[in-house]
Design a protein that fits this description.
Elements: H1 15-36, H2 49-57, H3 59-79, H4 84-108, H5 110-119, H6 126-140, H7 142-149, H8 175-191, H9 199-219, H10 228-247, H11 260-274, H12 278-290, H13 295-304, H14 307-314, H15 316-337, H16 343-382
Length: 385
């Protein structure tokens, strides 16, 4: 195994985290293949239900994405703080072009989605029942749903209004896109308190408030995961990590050797409170970039900096949104050709024949739309006062 590249702690992009994005995006895609083929209902007897749900529903993967976002935004704003208008402009060009494209494609396939949800032989599984209910809600209240989802503000809709059944994503992965947009809108204000000498204390207090708010909102039946109040604690975990990373970026030895003890205690506490191992997974990734000379960290760094994962990391946002309508369209084709197909066989077809097409098209979407408009957004943001 060749020695891992030394993480450039002051760089704008950290290769290990780019590779982590790629791994998480692939996890989400495979998860949706499993769920759309009804295999989430086939839990192996030896696998506990909680672990099975973490794996197949990929909520943990998305939560690690959220922590990553808090980390990246904190580092960006501390390194070269732009004005509020410039920051929001740049972030808008980061999110909206790909989102609106994939939303339009999903809307164009809405009847195909209905066909799949009602005719798949495994359509009685819990996942399909929830999906069918969401599709019915979208169709029954499409003007209000679109009015909120086009500007990515549907995460702010209170429970039961509008419509009475609540928000149902037209594009299911977009619940995290509205979450990101809400964070972008408030991040400069939050971080304006953090970079000073007492930034660590501020972030610790903010984390405590965010944890209490999330528990209170969950107890009050605020269950839509795209509301910032429920997930702010994840962003703050990323912000705290970026604060530590920036404070001790001269060398790994600058951090006391026992740094992982409070880190592990906090991650374990949050995992216990929220029943989600995302903080522990993030701690493992953070150790890879923070202590690259340790044997396990060196192995992790080597894995995360492989070219295929770095490429997946670059296209991860396009892949994350585009894969859904393509999977639904691919599954509809499979069901047309083989109406009685079993879920396992359908999953094999989607992975073997569909996944390469999805990766190819996501790469083209990134190269032809996402990356050029991100560059344009940065130039426009540079002229925004």
């Amino acid at each position: 195994m060749p020695p891992p590249p030394q993480a450039n702690l002051g760089a704008r992009r950290i290769d290990e985290l780019e590779g982590l994005r790629g791994l998480l995006a692939l996890w989400v895609v495979v998860s949706h293949v499993v769920c759309l083929c009804g295999l989430d209902a086939v839990r192996p007897a030896l696998v506990p239900r909680s672990i099975w749900e973490w794996l197949v529903y990929a909520g943990t993967a998305v939560n690690v994405f959220v922590i990553l976002s808090g980390f990246a935004i904190f580092k960006m704003l501390r390194a070269t703080p732009p004005g509020y208008g410039a920051f929001v402009t740049g972030r808008a060009f980061r999110l909206f072009p790909v989102y609106l494209t994939c939303l339009a494609l999903t809307l164009a396939l809405i009847s195909v989605s209905g066909f799949v949800s009602s005719t798949a032989p495994w359509h009685s599984t819990d996942y399909f029942q929830r999906w069918s209910s969401d599709l019915a809600n979208v169709r029954a209240h499409w003007p209000v749903q679109l009015a909120l989802q086009l500007p990515l503000l549907h995460g702010l809709a209170p429970p039961g209004w509008p419509p009475p059944q609540g928000i149902s994503d037209v594009l299911p992965p977009a619940w995290s896109a509205t979450l990101e947009w809400q964070f972008y809108l408030v991040a400069p204000a939050l971080l304006s308190f953090g970079p000073g000498r007492r930034g660590g204390r501020f972030l610790a207090g903010l984390l405590a408030l965010a944890v209490v708010a999330a528990l209170f909102l969950a107890a009050d039946d605020m269950t839509y995961g795209g509301f910032l109040g429920l997930k702010l604690w994840l962003f703050v975990v990323g912000m705290i990590s970026a604060f530590l990373h920036g404070t001790h970026d001269a060398a790994a030895s600058a951090m006391p050797r026992w740094w992982w003890l409070p880190g592990f205690a906090l991650a374990a506490f949050l995992t216990y409170v929220f029943h989600d191992p995302a903080p522990l997974l993030w701690l493992a990734a953070f150790a890879v970039i923070f202590a690259p000379h340790q044997p396990l960290a060196a192995a992790g760094s080597w894995l995360l900096t492989r070219r295929p994962l770095l490429w997946l990391g670059r296209i991860s946002y396009s892949l994350y949104l585009l894969h859904w309508p393509l999977l639904v369209g691919g599954l509809a084709l499979v069901l047309r050709l083989a109406p009685g197909i079993k879920g396992t066989a359908a999953a094999v077809w989607l992975l073997a024949a569909g996944l390469p097409v999805i990766l190819l098209l996501a790469g083209r979407l990134h190269a032809k739309l996402e990356a050029p408009l991100m560059r344009y957004g940065r130039r426009l943001a540079g002229r925004t006062v």
